[in-house]
């Protein structure tokens, strides 16, 4: 096992262990170690046995006082509802993936004295918590959740949550009414039909009684369960178009009113309550399945809200105070502390700052900004505190412009679904004309048959199997994709994914992990490399600079005295009595009062830092962003599926070239802005290519929106999720070729379904028009054709055969990782 | 067959009752989350970690 026990990422030389249930388990970083030991220490080690997949790797340098502001009752009041003694809040929890996660959060929160009630919903990723406000505050709750490695976000807008819940409840009730109703009516219908088949004559009184009871049951089914169908047909008629629901509704209304008429006018005519209820049940079922799939993705609704912090530290006359971002004005001076996200665009006031702009530019390393330069909202201040004069807020920020760019880009999206809809509308138009002709012809030949034949045409031609051909296949495929760690957020994406022939990778955070590791260590003064690494790791352990994180795996026992961090320059400290410095070459050279410094290793592609003591320079470290373990194998598998990979990155040419070489991609484009990326993808599409884009940052959002298929990394920005069709939840690139294969299979099955539905519809319409099919047989045929489609689609569900094929890819990826 | 005239209304009453029960359950939030409550069983007394588990 060379993967982390907690998050499942490769260990990369980490020797850290966590004690869980009397066993030592390897972990990849101190963050995972802390979380795993916390979970085990509270006696909840069972979590690891029951969870569905790996947990999210906790963010490092989570600042303890990040949550402190929520302790202020006035500030917390905008998220909470307070009664005399109790306070309740709804939190959206990032990283909540399975029921075991919700169990864990529930358990840990309940251990707090003062927590009255917790309910964590794994389906929506939300938690409602009620606590005693004398004993606890919101900050304690959020901190507790954060300690487990999840990121809590207070939900300010309850209405979305409530609307989703209502929608789900509403459609469940309609489905139940339709189901119960159908069973009851069918019971009477079967009795009547069996009598007919056996050539028995039913007592007219009993027959009439059956009809009246059927009417009683079918009426709520028709007007309660069927209301959405009738309403949607009415709406599409009002907008002068023919939707799927129009002929269905006409058939339903005709059949229902004719049945009512016949029920009260003697036993001569037929009644069609069975067809009506069965029809409504199947339609409602299809809608319910679709709604469930859609609701899965509801968590991304307040993506932008999550991107920016909700509090800021304003520098006022009475010193620094914490205020909600909404109360800031242009011209205000705010303080941004180390590791915090900038809440607004602004100008740097007093000192230079190192800003992590990966979210916007894709640049993996922090950029140094001078006093007076512009910094933008959404980026992260990685060094000491800086003051900023605000120049733009809210909708005027660069981040918001990217969001609007993304929204515009989404209109470029190829509308495959819309094409299918318009084809169906045309087909339905012909059906209506056909039904009219049938009616007219029969009125001329034999008026007594006219109604039954027309009804049969309308029912038999119901594109019900058509309508569920795609959704049924999609629902099965969604389940299968989930097994591979892929979340399907836009059903159209699967169809497009099957046809993709170009895949465009973003570099940072997609092919690479978006975090630094030491790629080269050159010792200069005869001290061995492991020794240099050990000293460096000891010095860097206290630093929160992103570069420092790369040294964490090399951390060994030892003590450091006089540890001192100099913002933007490096760290100094005393180990075994000797004074060392690590950081920029100048900073290290100062210690030994020496202007001469050794030349850095040639062709360095990442950041270079130096280690030295009072006499000499000891070593160079080169830090680069590391490739994801499965990147190479994923690229070659994709190529074998005739999908040509490309890299499109905002990073510098050399970094991009290195990554391209490592994973075997020949086409690569460096230093592209969000706008250039968008143009590039649109150009590819103009050449007739079908393009998949895979990215993780906010800067990728516009490109993701314009691509035929967009794929976001699970750990990427929430905004990227919002515009993506697929999300690689486990960040495992090896799942990508699997997804393509599955998408192709899905499309094949969907095509079989459509073909079957077409053969059934086209074959049966003439028969129905000629009067060979009574309406009850039409309804039965319609249902059977739908069931055939459903059964065919279940072939996409995960099976034993598929389970055995998945690990081969993973093994290959790990092989790659061990040989690399 | 006249017993049907009694039995069918009875069955309908049962259906209405079942439907009412289902509506009540949905409105009470019983169907809002079908996964997590299964974990509540583990709440106070997690199973002992000795024999059943093997890697």
Using brief descriptors, characterize the structure shown.
heterodimer, A: 820 residues, alpha+beta, Alpha-Beta Plaits, 6 domains, seven-stranded mixed β-sheet, six-stranded antiparallel β-sheet, 29 strands, elongated, disordered C terminus, B: 55 residues, mainly alpha, 44% helix
In words, what does this structure look like?
The complex is a heterodimer of chains A (820) and B (55). Chain A is α+β, with helices and mostly antiparallel strands. Chain A has 6 domains: 1-61, no CATH class; 72-156, Alpha-Beta Plaits (2-Layer Sandwich); 158-295; 310-401, Calcium-transporting ATPase, cytoplasmic transduction domain A, CATH 2.70.150.10; 424-483 and 748-814, no CATH class; 484-512 and 628-747, Rossmann fold (3-Layer(aba) Sandwich), CATH 3.40.50.1000. Helix content of chain A is 49%, strand content 19%. Chain A has 29 helices and 29 strands. In chain A, helix 15 runs parallel beside helix 28 (775-793), helix 16 runs parallel beside helix 28 (775-793) and helix 17 (492-499) packs across helix 27 (735-769). The longest helix of chain A has 40 residues, at 158-197. The two termini of chain A are 17 Å apart. In chain A, 46% of the residues are buried. Chain B is an all-alpha fold. Helices cover 44% and strands 0% of the residues of chain B. The N and C termini of chain B lie far apart (64 Å). The model of chain B is unreliable at 46-55 (pLDDT under 50). Classes of the chains: A alpha+beta (820), B mainly alpha (55). The interface between A and B is medium-sized, with 36 and 28 residues.
The fraction of residues assigned to DSSP E strands of chain B is under 5%
Percentage of helical residues of chain B?
A: 40-55%
- Total count of strands of chain A: 29
Shape type of chain A? elongated
* Unreliable runs of chain A: 297-306, 407-417, 800-820
How far the N terminus sits from the C terminus of chain A, by CA atoms, comes to 17 Å
The description of the largest β-sheet of chain A is: 7 strands, mixed
Reading the helices and strands of chain B in chain order gives H
**How far apart are the first and last residues' alpha carbons of chain B, in Å?**
64 Å
């Amino acid at each position: 096992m060379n993967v982390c026990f907690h998050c499942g990422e490769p260990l990369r030389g980490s020797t850290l262990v966590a004690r869980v249930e009397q066993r030592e388990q390897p972990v990849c970083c101190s963050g995972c170690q802390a979380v795993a030991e916390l979970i085990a220490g509270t006696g909840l080690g069972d979590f690891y046995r029951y969870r569905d997949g790996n947990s999210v790797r906790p963010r490092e340098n989570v600042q303890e006082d990040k949550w402190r502001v929520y302790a202020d009752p006035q500030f917390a009041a905008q998220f909470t509802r307070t009664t005399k003694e109790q306070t309740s809040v709804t939190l959206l929890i990032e990283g909540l993936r399975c029921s075991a996660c919700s169990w864990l959060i529930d358990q840990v929160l309940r251990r707090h004295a003062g927590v009255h009630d917790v309910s964590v919903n794994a389906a929506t990723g939300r938690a409602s918590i009620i606590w005693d406000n004398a004993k606890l505050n919101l900050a304690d709750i959020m901190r507790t959740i954060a300690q487990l490695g999840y990121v809590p976000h207070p939900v300010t807008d309850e209405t979305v949550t409530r609307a989703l819940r209502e929608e789900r409840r509403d459609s469940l009730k309609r489905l139940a009414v339709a189901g119960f109703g159908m069973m009851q009516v069918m019971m009477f219908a079967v009795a009547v039909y069996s009598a007919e088949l056996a050539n028995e004559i039913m007592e007219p009184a009993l027959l009439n009684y059956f009809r009246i009871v059927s009417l009683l049951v079918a009426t709520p089914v028709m007007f309660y369960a069927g209301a959405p169908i009738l309403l949607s047909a009415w709406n599409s008629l009002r907008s002068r178009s023919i939707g799927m629901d129009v002929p269905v509704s006409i058939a339903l209304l005709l059949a229902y009113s004719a049945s009512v008429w016949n029920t009260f006018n003697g036993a001569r005519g037929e009644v069609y309550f069975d067809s009506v209820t069965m029809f409504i049940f199947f339609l409602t079922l299809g809608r319910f399945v679709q709604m469930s799939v859609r609701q899965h993705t509801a968590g991304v609704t307040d993506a932008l809200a999550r991107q920016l912090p909700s509090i800021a530290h304003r520098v006022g006359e009475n010193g620094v105070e914490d205020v909600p971002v909404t109360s800031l004005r242009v011209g205000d001076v705010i303080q941004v502390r180390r590791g915090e996200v900038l809440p607004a665009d602004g100008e740097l006031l007093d000192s230079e700052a190192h800003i992590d702009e990966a979210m916007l530019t894709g640049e993996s390393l922090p950029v140094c900004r001078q006093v007076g330069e512009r910094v933008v909202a959404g980026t992260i201040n990685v060094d000491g505190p800086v003051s900023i004069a605000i120049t733009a807020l809210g909708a005027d920020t660069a981040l918001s412009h990217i969001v609007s760019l993304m929204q515009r880009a989404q209109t470029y999206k190829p509308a495959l679904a819309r094409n299918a809809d318009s084809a169906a509308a045309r087909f339905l138009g012909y059906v209506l004309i056909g039904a009219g002709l049938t009616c007219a012809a029969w009125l001329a030949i034999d008026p007594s048959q006219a109604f039954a034949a027309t009804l049969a045409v309308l029912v038999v031609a119901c594109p019900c199997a058509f309508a569920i051909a795609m959704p049924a296949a999609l629902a099965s495929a969604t389940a299968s994709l989930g097994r591979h760690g892929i979340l399907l957020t836009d059903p159209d994406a699967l169809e497009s994914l099957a046809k993709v022939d170009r895949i465009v990778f973003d570099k940072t955070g997609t092919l690479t992990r978006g975090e630094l590791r030491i790629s080269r260590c050159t010792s200069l003064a005869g001290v061995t490399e492991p020794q240099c690494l050990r000293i460096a790791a000891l010095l860097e352990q206290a630093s929160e600079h992103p570069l420092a994180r790369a040294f964490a795996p090399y951390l060994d026992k030892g003590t450091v005295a006089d540890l001192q961090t100099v913002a933007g320059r490096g760290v100094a400290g005393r180990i075994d009595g000797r004074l060392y410095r690590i950081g920029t070459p100048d900073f290290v050279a100062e210690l030994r009062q020496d202007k001469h410094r050794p030349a850095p290793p040639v062709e360095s592609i990442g950041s270079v830092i130096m280690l030295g003591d009072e006499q000499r320079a000891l070593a160079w470290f080169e830090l680069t962003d590391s490739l994801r373990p499965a990147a190479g194998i994923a690229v070659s598998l994709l190529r074998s599926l005739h999908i040509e990979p490309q890299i499109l990155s905002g990073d510098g040419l050399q970094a991009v070239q290195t990554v391209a070489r490592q994973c075997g991609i020949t086409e690569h484009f460096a230093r592209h802005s969000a706008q250039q990326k968008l143009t590039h993808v649109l150009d590819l599409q103009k050449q007739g290519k079908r393009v998949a884009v895979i990215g993780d940052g906010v800067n990728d959002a516009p490109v993701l929106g314009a691509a035929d298929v967009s794929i976001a990394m699970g750990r990427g920005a929430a905004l990227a999720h919002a515009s993506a069709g697929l999300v690689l939840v486990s960040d495992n690139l090896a799942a990508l070729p699997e997804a393509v294969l599955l998408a192709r299979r899905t499309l094949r099955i969907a095509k079989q379904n459509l073909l079957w539905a077409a053969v059934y519809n086209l074959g049966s319409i003439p028969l129905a028009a000629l009067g060979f099919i009574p309406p009850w047989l039409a309804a039965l045929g319609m249902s059977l054709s739908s069931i055939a489609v459903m059964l065919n689609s279940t072939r996409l569900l995960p099976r034993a055969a598929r389970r055995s094929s998945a690990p081969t890819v993973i093994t290959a990826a790990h092989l790659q990782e061990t040989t690399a | 067959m006249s017993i049907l005239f009694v039995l069918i209304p009875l069955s309908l009453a049962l259906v209405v009752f079942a439907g009412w029960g289902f509506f009540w359950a949905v409105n009470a939030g019983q169907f809002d989350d079908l996964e997590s409550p299964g974990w509540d069983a583990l709440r106070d007394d997690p199973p002992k970690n000795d024999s059943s588990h093997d890697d």
